[in-house]
Write a structure and sequence with these properties.
homodimer, v583 fold, 404 residues, alpha+beta, Enterococcus faecalis V583 fold
Chain lengths: 404, 404
């Protein structure tokens, strides 16, 4: 996990890069159908169907999905990750990463910003318009950029050093990506300029990336997916290699137990609310972004990011306590991700289901919060614990498999 | 000081923006002549004379300066600041800042990177070549960029929010500018793209800025100069408004005592050395960059920048202790510059000579270290205290003036 070397190497569409067939949408978290899907996931499904032109109205998209004319599949089945609803449709642009150490490829969609965006279940005209612009302007710019970068260095943009650096710059690289996004932009700009693309496109793309501090989140998630994938399928290993939520269920994979999901109802996060909203409006936890905590950063590295408490709530002291508590349930201190304020100690890395069950301490996750109704969008950000039931169930699975 | 609003508004040459006449060079710190000038200042004078074409050889530049054919003047006499030797020659490009709150203008030169550079006293062909490229490529790009930014926002690039943000991102914005530089680049890139300039020029400028984490230092210094200038010339005030060193002497201005320098021999910094160098090679402290500490960041904000100890030496704990100690000799906690790890407490701001004399605590400064011989360049980075004698002498000046 720690030796993984994820490098951003390409941009393509989901249908080009993944084995997606026909009218299929990927979504974050464990498998789910329309009937059990939460509001924000439904909203994102509607939006993606409108974006693809499969449906002309939200009602039509709903009916098509209900009848199975639009299929649903998990992002993690494709080594892909998406924040919040995590919906990826065939023509959406993806980042492609290659783990240079292990040869695996991982994927994520591109970040739309905050507020009324597809991943939080909004599907208004502005949302669809933005997605189309991302496909026609942002994606070609980023594709040309990464091609120029590869020409220069022969290997694309390496993400582990960028995340490691950002962790010394007040990011935990899940809900605070100010530094990661800044480092990404400054690193890619010379290559954007080298590309032969139209200046107006470049300007629009640079402006969009600059105005969104979450620009780098999706790349960081794909990097975390590569890292946790490196620890997956290790016989006898009790490390968690996927933690994800679909807005209804929270689920995990455990390294030695293959792609079998262990699930439980997703809890509602606690946090800070955008004006006019409260906990009563909040959807249960949703998104693949807990892959960052799975790989040893995000909520596990809160001690690197004291300023995050202004976004997710809590005090500086509580942020440090969260990190200190996570050492109790992890396998190692990260070799490359360090916390300057804890004397450059490595972040707590590699969640061990045995340690969770022994200590009763649950993984702490930083997260965005979606409105529970389809069509609204983001209403806050906060923290949440993963439910104990999934770890208990997975240990049962382990005992069944290994007979110990 | 805290309400100052420095905004980068223009780029021009020193002869265009400052009242520099004939063959004059500005330098950091209190007044000095060739005879007493240290190696790195001499080296920078030689380099600037070669750059201007006033001399064809180092020996000729030396002789001209010795005979007074090349005049020397202090940067601070022109509301300008320059790191290390701080040498500014008439055709060198400058940043121009406007303090929107107080209407003053301040200036700084542009950062060349680290190692063999003019400001550390190097004057080889590569150094002169780089300076010429900065005048012919970097400066026009930045001028076009800031003009585009002003067209869009009507006011240029505001520096106080950028520094405040960087202080939550592990910078103290004197010797660690990784975040400040990243934030600067991401903010200006869209405007670079909007300018009608040649793409190759833009590429070269963006690459140069990106490869140097000190790119933003000089803008931060000019901002700090604007801030401390706002506190200058206040009757009865015992606040320090300039702290600077020329490599031989360290000197200060005190608010109510006008532009009168109080000086003492500059101490040699302690720190970490580039391979092959040691304290025996180090020149005494040099540069205007202590203007950052004067304005309440830099060494005074070390607690925001634990990762800096890898560059200037010391431990994380000692960095926090330095900041805590500086509260003892300052007037206020900064309203806008906060330290997340100290529960968002404001940085110690406004050095009071009375408190220094009462406590015996000296201002702590982060600094680069120059080789004592002309022509070598940077050999390390570290920390240094300002000498007690200057504060004692200034209090004597205060007593003489006010009869208390």
């Amino acid at each position: 996990m720690m030796e993984s070397e994820p490098v951003w190497i390409d941009v393509g569409t989901a249908e080009g890069k993944l084995s997606m067939k026909g009218r299929t949408l990927l979504h974050a978290g464990p498998p789910i159908d329309w009937k059990r899907a939460s509001g924000p996931l439904r909203g994102a499904i509607i939006g993606a169907s409108l974006y693809e032109g499969w449906a002309e109205t939200p009602r039509e998209a709903e009916r098509m999905t209900e009848r199975g004319e639009i299929g649903l599949d998990c992002t993690h089945n494709h080594n892909a990750v998406g924040p919040m609803a995590g919906v990826i449709s065939p023509s959406m642009p993806l980042y492609e990463l290659m783990d240079e150490k292990h040869g695996t490829r991982t994927y994520s969609n591109m970040n739309e910003g905050i507020g009324k965006v597809l991943r939080y279940g909004a599907y208004g005209e502005d949302v669809i318009e933005r997605l189309k612009w991302m496909g026609s302007v942002l994606a070609p710019v980023l594709k040309a950029t990464i091609e120029e970068a590869r020409k220069e260095s022969g290997r694309g943009i390496s993400l582990k050093p960028m995340i490691a650096q950002a962790l010394t710059m007040g990011d935990e690289a899940h809900n605070r990506n100010n530094a990661t996004t800044s480092l990404l932009i400054r690193q890619v700009v010379p290559f954007m300029l080298k590309s032969g693309l139209d200046r107006k496109m470049l300007f629009e793309a640079a402006k969009f990336m600059n105005e969104n501090n979450f620009t780098a989140l999706n790349l960081g998630m794909a990097a975390a997916k590569a890292m946790s994938l490196a620890a997956h399928d290790v016989p006898h290993s009790t490390l968690v290699t996927v933690m994800s939520r679909n807005g209804t269920d929270a689920g995990i994979w455990v390294s030695s137990l293959g792609n079998r999901w262990y699930t439980a109802p997703a809890p509602v996060p606690r946090g800070l609310w955008f004006p006019g909203f409260s906990e009563a409006d909040a959807n249960p936890d949703i998104g693949d972004s807990a892959i960052t905590e799975t790989a040893g950063f995000g909520g596990f590295a809160m001690a690197t990011a004291p300023a995050i408490v202004a976004w997710v709530g809590g005090s500086v002291q509580s942020a440090i306590e969260v990190t200190n508590r996570m050492y109790e349930i992890t396998y190692a201190k990260h070799k490359y991700f360090q916390i300057p304020f804890l004397n450059f100690q490595g972040t707590p890395t590699g969640i061990d289901i045995r340690k969770i069950l022994k200590t009763g301490i649950l993984p702490a996750i930083n997260t965005g919060i979606a409105h529970k109704k389809a069509g609204v969008g983001q209403i806050g950000a906060g923290t949440v614990s993963f439910p104990m039931e999934v770890f208990r169930a997975s240990l049962k699975g382990y005992v069944d498999k290994y007979g110990v």
